Amino acid sequence: MNHHSGLTQQPVVSNIADFDKMSGTRGERLLFNNRFLIVVACLFATLFFGWKMTTLQLNASFEKMIPTRHPYIVNYLQNKADLVGLGNTIRISVESTKGDIFNAEYLETLRKLNDEVFLMPGVERPYMKSLWTPATRWMGVTEEGMDGGPVIPDDYNGSEQSIKQVRQNVERSGEIGTLVAANFKSSVIAVPLLEKNESTGKRLDYGALSAQLEQVRAKYQTDSIKIHITGFAKIVGDLIQGLRQVMMFFAVAIGIATVILYFHTRCVRSTLLVVSCSLVAVTWLLGILPTIGYELDPYSILVPFLVFAIGMSHGAQKMNGIMQDIGRGTHKLVAARYTFRRLFVAGLTALLADAVGFGVLMVIDIKVIQELAITASIGVMILIFTNLILLPILLSYTGVSVKAAKRAIQSEQSALGKRKHPIWAFLDLFTQRRWAAVAIGVALVMGVSGYWVSRGLKIGDLDPGAPELRPDSRYNRDNAFMAANYGASSDVFVVMVKTPPMLCNQYNTLSQVDALEWRLRQLPAVVTTNSLADLSKNWSMGQYEGNPKWYVLPRMQGLLGATVARAPRELFNQKCDLLTVYVFLKDHKADTLESVVNVAEKFAQDNDTKEVQYLLAAGNAGIEAATNVVVKRANLEMLVLVYLAVMVLSFITFRSWRAIVCAVLPLMLTSILCEALMVFLGIGVKVATLPVIALGVGIGIDYALYILSVTLTRYREGADLSEAYFSALTFTGRVIILTGITLGLGVVTWAFSPIKFQADMGSLLAFMFVWNMIGALILVPSLACFLLKRSPTEEATKLADDKQVHALDAARRVKLKAG
């Protein structure tokens, strides 16, 4: 049997003594001639990283979720010390289900809850606000003139007269719609959070904080009191608490992959080795993360499964190659080395493409995505060792079952026979120009249609509340309650107005602020606004016995100065060189934020001077608006860079631009269709979903590389396209179909997850796993039919081989006639 270089069949060596151990590359000899040492080293590495994995923390950081170098966030962080509760804030609404809030039982419960939350770790206590905090004040017109004080006075004793006074103070506080519901049936405790726990100096543990809040809810919630909790920290806490169910779905996906792989091979030892090597890679990854000081957050929790999925794909290819060689009678060690020779370069290129594809995410200026990119890249680099090196070495010791090996070679021989398997026969049709043209035409129509649909893809959240959680989750029910009762407090966009020191209360400045508020209030998405200008107008009206005709900004500086003396500190800072304009929105959907940003930016461009600047933006909605801007820009940059990276690596491997086109165009179609699917499913592009399409490109290139590697090798050796592609189908195509369907079935089960983020990712990943498989099996040969050309040297060689074959056939016919 001829010894072909590359990916074609090697000579059968049944006796290890007949095999030259010094054959192959230097790397192959180094690895396989020291098998025992490598296995022992991997065993100790697995034990070490398994121990380190137990120290891995699951947490999230508010500042890691935001683009810290975006101008909006730079403005926010520079003035953060003067901004009260405009970043990471928890809101606890205490609802009275029997009557209103003005009763002794409700107010006492609110006091106890307020005091308990006040003492929680990570609370920015000076800026916490509720009816019981001294900073919550009222202001009104009395018989003696303007007066004011804390909403709940120092002499409150729970009597009917005291409660009546509290009601009167609330009505004059200006907090109705923000701190107190308009129907007087609930009130809010606003709890700003620090980034670090002040007692330990460590980053705030959102999982522990969420658990404490749930204990508080259970403690104080009764038949007459209901508690609703919202905020970034609570979202993350709920995601962390739901990770047990996430892990269950991961386990189901791994189980499905294992069962299907076993039914394909009918070999227990090889199936367990493929799964084990993929799990070893995951173990090493989870052990390396705490070693380098990383944590796992809810948004990168999918990375371990992606590493497992990629490992299963490559591991199944190695196992299939070894099984076929053993079925031909080759010794298990020789079979492992043959498979290593044939598939290592293709596997290495595919994994490097994966790693580079993930690494491209580093260009996105959001730290949580950058850490996800590093985590995924580390995982893929680990797979180069565990699945391209360790797995063949382990299989060189264990081999595969005799029945499984015979079954594998029988399947290959039957496929190479005159009667092809219906699936192989169908796929082979796409090496013919007529069928290839139809496939390319259909793909073109799908691409154009998908692009037209994908134009409706939105940046940011498309639903109120937390889209990471189900609409009927407790958090989103709480958020719906907040939106219905506190339309002016759920989503806040803040414009900062910078002035010279001690000049924030000048008439010209406040009149411009008033003009900005008026423009913003014209937007349908804006519920109301609040600022020092608005407070000054209320103060002016109060000076004239509440006559609404005097609801104007006073021109006398003395009156404006008196307003500042009594104004709450969230409206301006101590040096009086920063004003805050609060814009309360009905939701934080992408269109809502875009409309507010457009008006505020236009106003800033028209009115900025050397003395007064209008800076965007603070508040949860302002931060999300900045994030949306970064995500929108990064979405295109990321795709361009990941495709450039994939094309460069493909060119290094194939040295043919035609092969690159064959490999990349199916991936581009998948990307377009994935964006169209996101539009159909109502999924916006945001921090949680941004990496998905890049991950799909990284995973999808594996299929194309394995198909093209075999096809090009056989094609350059003289086989026509049909023969070359059919060789690829019998050698790697079976495993591509196996892994595509297996992984697709594994992740599609996530659709039943209670965490919507995981369900969305499952739908998108299942689509990409399956569609990348279809693209590799149909579009790659279809494009190759029109693009692949032989070089003059290869064509001359093929003609010579054809002449030799014809001469042998002629000689054989002459001999038969003579006989």
From TrEMBL:
It is found in: Cell membrane. It comes from the Bacteria. Residues 211-433, 591-790 form the Membrane transport protein MMPL domain. It is a multi-pass membrane protein. Keywords: Cell membrane, Membrane, Transmembrane, Transmembrane helix. InterPro entries: MMPL_dom, Mycobact_MmpL. One of its GO terms (cellular component) is plasma membrane. SUPFAM superfamilies: Multidrug efflux transporter AcrB transmembrane domain (SSF82866). It holds the Pfam family MMPL. The chain crosses the membrane at residues 30-51, 246-264, 271-292, 298-316, 343-366, 372-397, 435-453, 636-654, 661-683, 689-712, 724-752, 764-788. PANTHER family: MEMBRANE PROTEIN MJ1562-RELATED, SSD DOMAIN-CONTAINING PROTEIN. This is Transport protein.
